[in-house]
Amino acid sequence: MKLGIPKGLLYYKYYPFIDSFLEELQVDFITSQDTNKEILDLGVKNAIDDACLPIKIFHGHVASLKDKCDAILVPRFMSTAKGEYICPKFCGLPEMISNSIPGLPRLIVEPIYGLDQKQLYNFANKMAKKMELDNHRIKKAFMTALSKQREFNMKKLIPNNKYKIALVGHPYNIFDKYMNMDIINKLNKINISAVTEDYVEESNINEEIKDLFKKPFWYFARNSYGFASYVSKNKLVDGIIYISSFACGIDSIVIELIKDKVKDIPVLVLKIDEQTGEAGFDTRIEAFTDMLERRCS
Predict the structure, then answer these.
(1) CA 63 to CA 67: how far, in whole Å?
(2) 163-296 maps to which CATH number?
(3) Distance (Å, rounded) from C-alpha 278 to C-alpha 29?
(4) What is the pLDDT of residue 154?
Protein backbone atom coordinates (compact mmCIF):
# COMPACT_ATOMS: atom_id res chain seq x y z
CA MET A 1 0.00 0.00 0.00
CA LYS A 2 1.28 3.46 -0.90
CA LEU A 3 0.29 6.17 1.59
CA GLY A 4 -0.20 9.80 0.57
CA ILE A 5 0.86 12.61 2.94
CA PRO A 6 -0.63 16.06 2.16
CA LYS A 7 2.01 18.74 2.69
CA GLY A 8 -0.35 21.25 4.30
CA LEU A 9 -1.50 22.66 7.65
CA LEU A 10 0.59 21.28 10.54
CA TYR A 11 2.76 19.08 8.32
CA TYR A 12 5.30 21.93 8.31
CA LYS A 13 5.64 21.72 12.09
CA TYR A 14 5.60 17.94 12.56
CA TYR A 15 7.01 16.48 9.34
CA PRO A 16 10.18 15.10 11.01
CA PHE A 17 7.97 12.90 13.20
CA ILE A 18 5.61 11.82 10.40
CA ASP A 19 8.29 11.06 7.81
CA SER A 20 10.64 9.31 10.24
CA PHE A 21 7.86 7.15 11.72
CA LEU A 22 6.78 5.92 8.29
CA GLU A 23 10.38 5.36 7.15
CA GLU A 24 11.16 3.27 10.25
CA LEU A 25 8.11 1.13 9.55
CA GLN A 26 9.19 0.82 5.90
CA VAL A 27 5.90 2.24 4.67
CA ASP A 28 5.81 3.15 1.01
CA PHE A 29 4.63 6.78 1.13
CA ILE A 30 4.55 9.87 -1.04
CA THR A 31 4.21 13.51 0.00
CA SER A 32 2.49 16.07 -2.16
CA GLN A 33 4.53 18.78 -3.87
CA ASP A 34 5.30 22.06 -2.17
CA THR A 35 2.33 24.40 -2.44
CA ASN A 36 2.09 25.98 -5.90
CA LYS A 37 -0.55 27.59 -8.12
CA GLU A 38 -1.82 24.24 -9.39
CA ILE A 39 -2.43 23.02 -5.82
CA LEU A 40 -4.07 26.31 -4.85
CA ASP A 41 -6.40 26.09 -7.87
CA LEU A 42 -7.33 22.50 -6.98
CA GLY A 43 -8.09 23.61 -3.43
CA VAL A 44 -10.26 26.54 -4.50
CA LYS A 45 -12.13 24.23 -6.88
CA ASN A 46 -12.83 21.51 -4.30
CA ALA A 47 -13.22 23.33 -0.96
CA ILE A 48 -16.28 25.23 0.24
CA ASP A 49 -16.23 28.95 -0.60
CA ASP A 50 -16.00 30.25 2.97
CA ALA A 51 -13.04 28.06 3.95
CA CYS A 52 -9.85 29.92 4.89
CA LEU A 53 -6.82 29.80 2.59
CA PRO A 54 -4.91 27.09 4.56
CA ILE A 55 -7.94 24.76 4.46
CA LYS A 56 -8.38 25.34 0.72
CA ILE A 57 -4.70 24.60 0.15
CA PHE A 58 -4.95 21.38 2.19
CA HIS A 59 -7.84 20.33 -0.09
CA GLY A 60 -5.53 21.02 -3.04
CA HIS A 61 -2.77 18.84 -1.61
CA VAL A 62 -5.23 15.96 -1.07
CA ALA A 63 -6.68 16.35 -4.58
CA SER A 64 -3.17 16.30 -6.06
CA LEU A 65 -2.47 12.94 -4.35
CA LYS A 66 -5.73 11.10 -4.96
CA ASP A 67 -4.62 9.24 -8.12
CA LYS A 68 -1.06 8.58 -6.91
CA CYS A 69 -1.64 6.44 -3.80
CA ASP A 70 -3.86 3.81 -2.19
CA ALA A 71 -4.67 5.78 0.97
CA ILE A 72 -4.23 9.34 2.29
CA LEU A 73 -3.45 10.37 5.86
CA VAL A 74 -5.82 13.06 7.17
CA PRO A 75 -5.25 13.52 10.94
CA ARG A 76 -8.11 14.84 13.05
CA PHE A 77 -6.51 17.36 15.43
CA MET A 78 -8.87 17.72 18.39
CA SER A 79 -6.78 19.31 21.14
CA THR A 80 -3.17 19.94 22.11
CA ALA A 81 -3.45 19.78 25.90
CA LYS A 82 -6.12 19.56 28.59
CA GLY A 83 -8.48 22.54 28.29
CA GLU A 84 -6.74 23.80 25.14
CA TYR A 85 -8.19 23.22 21.68
CA ILE A 86 -7.45 23.80 18.06
CA CYS A 87 -9.38 25.44 15.21
CA PRO A 88 -12.76 23.66 14.67
CA LYS A 89 -11.95 23.17 10.99
CA PHE A 90 -9.19 20.76 12.04
CA CYS A 91 -11.71 18.67 13.97
CA GLY A 92 -14.00 18.29 10.96
CA LEU A 93 -11.29 18.17 8.30
CA PRO A 94 -11.76 14.48 7.35
CA GLU A 95 -15.49 15.05 6.73
CA MET A 96 -14.80 18.22 4.74
CA ILE A 97 -12.29 16.33 2.59
CA SER A 98 -14.38 13.20 2.05
CA ASN A 99 -17.49 15.18 1.08
CA SER A 100 -15.75 17.73 -1.13
CA ILE A 101 -13.31 15.76 -3.29
CA PRO A 102 -14.73 13.01 -5.52
CA GLY A 103 -12.90 9.79 -6.31
CA LEU A 104 -10.75 9.68 -3.19
CA PRO A 105 -8.92 6.51 -2.10
CA ARG A 106 -9.24 5.30 1.48
CA LEU A 107 -8.61 7.98 4.13
CA ILE A 108 -6.52 7.07 7.20
CA VAL A 109 -8.25 9.12 9.90
CA GLU A 110 -7.22 9.10 13.54
CA PRO A 111 -7.86 11.79 16.20
CA ILE A 112 -5.03 13.48 18.11
CA TYR A 113 -5.93 14.56 21.65
CA GLY A 114 -2.61 16.02 22.74
CA LEU A 115 1.02 16.55 21.83
CA ASP A 116 2.68 14.87 24.82
CA GLN A 117 4.47 11.55 24.38
CA LYS A 118 1.59 9.36 25.57
CA GLN A 119 -1.02 10.97 23.32
CA LEU A 120 1.26 10.99 20.29
CA TYR A 121 2.03 7.31 20.81
CA ASN A 122 -1.69 6.48 20.96
CA PHE A 123 -2.18 8.32 17.66
CA ALA A 124 0.82 6.69 15.96
CA ASN A 125 -0.07 3.21 17.25
CA LYS A 126 -3.69 3.38 16.04
CA MET A 127 -2.63 4.86 12.69
CA ALA A 128 -0.10 2.06 12.16
CA LYS A 129 -2.64 -0.63 13.05
CA LYS A 130 -5.08 0.80 10.50
CA MET A 131 -2.35 0.19 7.93
CA GLU A 132 -2.00 -3.39 9.27
CA LEU A 133 1.63 -2.90 10.24
CA ASP A 134 3.66 -5.26 12.43
CA ASN A 135 2.82 -4.42 16.05
CA HIS A 136 6.23 -5.10 17.68
CA ARG A 137 8.00 -2.55 15.42
CA ILE A 138 5.67 0.33 16.20
CA LYS A 139 7.15 1.38 19.54
CA LYS A 140 10.73 1.43 18.25
CA ALA A 141 9.68 3.45 15.20
CA PHE A 142 7.78 5.86 17.43
CA MET A 143 10.76 6.53 19.73
CA THR A 144 13.03 7.17 16.74
CA ALA A 145 10.49 9.54 15.20
CA LEU A 146 9.99 11.36 18.51
CA SER A 147 13.75 11.85 18.81
CA LYS A 148 13.90 13.33 15.29
CA GLN A 149 11.07 15.73 16.14
CA ARG A 150 12.75 16.85 19.36
CA GLU A 151 16.00 17.51 17.49
CA PHE A 152 14.04 19.60 14.98
CA ASN A 153 12.37 21.54 17.80
CA MET A 154 15.66 22.52 19.47
CA LYS A 155 16.27 26.25 19.73
CA LYS A 156 17.63 27.67 16.50
CA LEU A 157 20.22 30.38 15.92
CA ILE A 158 18.74 33.68 14.81
CA PRO A 159 20.43 35.16 11.69
CA ASN A 160 22.51 38.18 12.64
CA ASN A 161 20.91 40.88 10.48
CA LYS A 162 20.57 44.60 11.18
CA TYR A 163 16.97 44.33 12.38
CA LYS A 164 14.92 41.53 13.93
CA ILE A 165 11.15 41.13 13.64
CA ALA A 166 8.83 38.62 15.27
CA LEU A 167 6.97 36.70 12.57
CA VAL A 168 3.72 35.72 14.28
CA GLY A 169 0.85 33.54 13.08
CA HIS A 170 -0.27 29.96 12.61
CA PRO A 171 2.67 27.68 11.64
CA TYR A 172 1.32 26.88 8.18
CA ASN A 173 1.03 30.61 7.38
CA ILE A 174 4.61 31.17 8.56
CA PHE A 175 6.33 28.23 6.85
CA ASP A 176 4.39 27.68 3.61
CA LYS A 177 6.52 29.76 1.23
CA TYR A 178 3.83 29.94 -1.44
CA MET A 179 1.14 31.23 0.93
CA ASN A 180 3.33 33.92 2.49
CA MET A 181 5.22 34.88 -0.70
CA ASP A 182 8.48 33.49 0.78
CA ILE A 183 8.52 36.28 3.37
CA ILE A 184 11.42 34.94 5.45
CA ASN A 185 13.80 35.06 2.48
CA LYS A 186 12.44 38.47 1.42
CA LEU A 187 13.22 39.83 4.88
CA ASN A 188 16.71 38.29 4.95
CA LYS A 189 17.52 39.99 1.63
CA ILE A 190 16.76 43.41 3.15
CA ASN A 191 18.84 42.70 6.27
CA ILE A 192 15.96 41.68 8.59
CA SER A 193 15.96 38.45 10.62
CA ALA A 194 12.63 36.72 11.16
CA VAL A 195 12.16 35.30 14.68
CA THR A 196 9.37 32.71 15.01
CA GLU A 197 7.81 31.11 18.08
CA ASP A 198 10.16 28.13 17.66
CA TYR A 199 12.98 30.30 19.00
CA VAL A 200 11.22 30.84 22.34
CA GLU A 201 10.92 28.29 25.15
CA GLU A 202 7.36 27.09 25.82
CA SER A 203 7.80 27.97 29.52
CA ASN A 204 8.28 31.62 28.55
CA ILE A 205 5.11 31.57 26.45
CA ASN A 206 3.20 30.00 29.35
CA GLU A 207 4.42 32.74 31.68
CA GLU A 208 3.24 35.52 29.38
CA ILE A 209 -0.32 34.26 29.03
CA LYS A 210 -0.79 34.61 32.79
CA ASP A 211 -1.38 38.33 32.07
CA LEU A 212 -4.67 37.47 30.36
CA PHE A 213 -7.89 37.37 32.38
CA LYS A 214 -8.26 33.67 31.53
CA LYS A 215 -6.22 30.94 29.86
CA PRO A 216 -6.72 31.01 26.06
CA PHE A 217 -9.10 28.34 24.79
CA TRP A 218 -7.30 28.11 21.44
CA TYR A 219 -3.78 26.68 21.00
CA PHE A 220 -2.82 29.11 18.23
CA ALA A 221 -4.03 32.13 20.21
CA ARG A 222 -1.99 31.05 23.23
CA ASN A 223 1.22 30.63 21.25
CA SER A 224 0.88 33.81 19.20
CA TYR A 225 0.04 36.03 22.15
CA GLY A 226 2.65 34.53 24.49
CA PHE A 227 5.39 34.68 21.87
CA ALA A 228 4.66 38.29 20.80
CA SER A 229 4.41 39.44 24.41
CA TYR A 230 7.69 37.77 25.43
CA VAL A 231 9.88 39.03 22.58
CA SER A 232 8.54 42.59 22.83
CA LYS A 233 8.84 42.78 26.64
CA ASN A 234 12.42 41.53 26.52
CA LYS A 235 13.31 43.79 23.57
CA LEU A 236 14.38 40.87 21.40
CA VAL A 237 12.84 42.33 18.23
CA ASP A 238 12.39 45.72 16.55
CA GLY A 239 8.88 45.02 15.26
CA ILE A 240 6.16 42.41 14.73
CA ILE A 241 4.64 41.09 11.49
CA TYR A 242 1.47 39.04 11.97
CA ILE A 243 0.46 36.88 9.00
CA SER A 244 -3.25 36.14 9.20
CA SER A 245 -5.65 34.18 7.01
CA PHE A 246 -8.57 36.31 5.86
CA ALA A 247 -11.70 35.73 7.97
CA CYS A 248 -9.86 33.74 10.67
CA GLY A 249 -11.94 34.16 13.83
CA ILE A 250 -9.10 33.25 16.20
CA ASP A 251 -6.75 35.79 14.61
CA SER A 252 -9.30 38.60 14.77
CA ILE A 253 -9.21 38.34 18.57
CA VAL A 254 -5.55 37.61 19.23
CA ILE A 255 -4.32 40.43 16.96
CA GLU A 256 -6.22 42.95 19.09
CA LEU A 257 -4.85 41.39 22.29
CA ILE A 258 -1.31 41.68 20.96
CA LYS A 259 -1.79 45.30 19.85
CA ASP A 260 -3.13 46.15 23.30
CA LYS A 261 -0.16 44.48 25.00
CA VAL A 262 2.60 45.66 22.66
CA LYS A 263 2.50 49.44 22.43
CA ASP A 264 6.15 50.44 22.07
CA ILE A 265 7.07 48.61 18.85
CA PRO A 266 5.38 48.68 15.39
CA VAL A 267 2.99 45.90 14.35
CA LEU A 268 2.17 45.05 10.71
CA VAL A 269 -0.77 42.73 9.97
CA LEU A 270 -0.65 40.99 6.58
CA LYS A 271 -3.92 39.32 5.55
CA ILE A 272 -3.65 36.52 3.01
CA ASP A 273 -6.18 34.71 0.84
CA GLU A 274 -6.21 33.20 -2.66
CA GLN A 275 -6.44 36.70 -4.20
CA THR A 276 -3.39 38.17 -2.42
CA GLY A 277 -0.96 39.74 -4.88
CA GLU A 278 2.80 39.71 -4.38
CA ALA A 279 3.31 43.33 -5.48
CA GLY A 280 1.05 44.73 -2.75
CA PHE A 281 2.59 42.34 -0.23
CA ASP A 282 6.10 43.55 -1.05
CA THR A 283 5.07 47.21 -0.91
CA ARG A 284 3.76 46.85 2.64
CA ILE A 285 6.93 45.05 3.77
CA GLU A 286 9.10 47.80 2.24
CA ALA A 287 7.06 50.51 3.98
CA PHE A 288 7.39 48.63 7.28
CA THR A 289 11.17 48.39 6.77
CA ASP A 290 11.38 52.15 6.13
CA MET A 291 9.55 52.75 9.39
CA LEU A 292 11.98 50.51 11.30
CA GLU A 293 14.93 52.42 9.87
CA ARG A 294 13.42 55.78 10.87
CA ARG A 295 12.73 54.55 14.42
CA CYS A 296 16.21 53.09 14.88
CA SER A 297 18.20 55.91 13.27
Answers:
(1) 8
(2) 3.40.50.11900
(3) 33
(4) 67
